[in-house]
Amino acid sequence: MTKSQKFWNKFAARYAARPLKNVPAYEAMLADVAARLKPTDKVLEIGCGTGGTAIRLAPAVAQWTATDFSIEMVKIAQAKPAGDTVVFKVVDASNTFDGGPFDAICAFNVPHLVDDLPQVLHKSMPT
Ligand SMILES: C[S@@+](CC[C@H](N)C(=O)[O-])C[C@H]1O[C@@H](n2cnc3c(N)ncnc32)[C@H](O)[C@@H]1O
Predict the structure, then answer these.
(1) Is the preceding omega at residue 111 within 30 degrees of 0, hence cis?
(2) pTM for the complete prediction?
């Protein structure tokens, strides 16, 4: 386990308990993303954290694969009630994602944490 995974595992419960800082901005972001997605889309989310955004957006698409490299984040996400279009998986963004290619890739508050983001996106999008 990397130092960064240890950090996020340790922080997961506290992260889950933090209230949203700006609810209207969050709702506007959800609406903006939803407007870009189609009901037939297969979506990959990188760094899903405790899964709240995935659970809100997944009902609008065919399949939402929400991934995070922190097992503690994913455990919290998996314990939440969710629709049947979302699945949570422990995956480091530096590895290959199963189930691709994806029609859309989302990463909320994460891109600055992922090494070589262009390469990560390239290998998961249709060729
Ligand atoms: C700031 S939190 C954002 C969580 C969620 N997207 C949100 O907006 O609430 C960053 C998340 O990215 C995950 N993360 C960081 N680096 C990652 C990587 N290389 N691969 C997968 N997940 C990563 C962390 O475990 C953490 O859950």
Answers:
(1) no
(2) 0.94
pLDDT per residue as tens digits for the range 29-64: 999 999 999 999 999 999 999 999 999 999 999 999
Q: Best of 43, 67, 68, 73 to mutate for ligand 1, by most ligand atoms within 8 A of CB?
A: 68
- Distance (Å, rounded) from C-alpha 16 to C-alpha 18? 6
Q: Which residue has the tokens 């922190």?
A: 70
The Å distance, Cα 68 to ligand 1 centre, comes to 6
Helix ranges, the chain (H)? 3-17, 23-36, 52-57, 71-78, 117-124
What domains can you pick out in the chain, each with its CATH number? 3-124 (3.40.50.150)
Name residue 105's beta-bridge partners. Answer: 44
Residue list, ligand 1 pocket, CB within 6 Å: 4, 8, 46-49, 53, 68-70, 73, 92-94, 108-110, 113-114
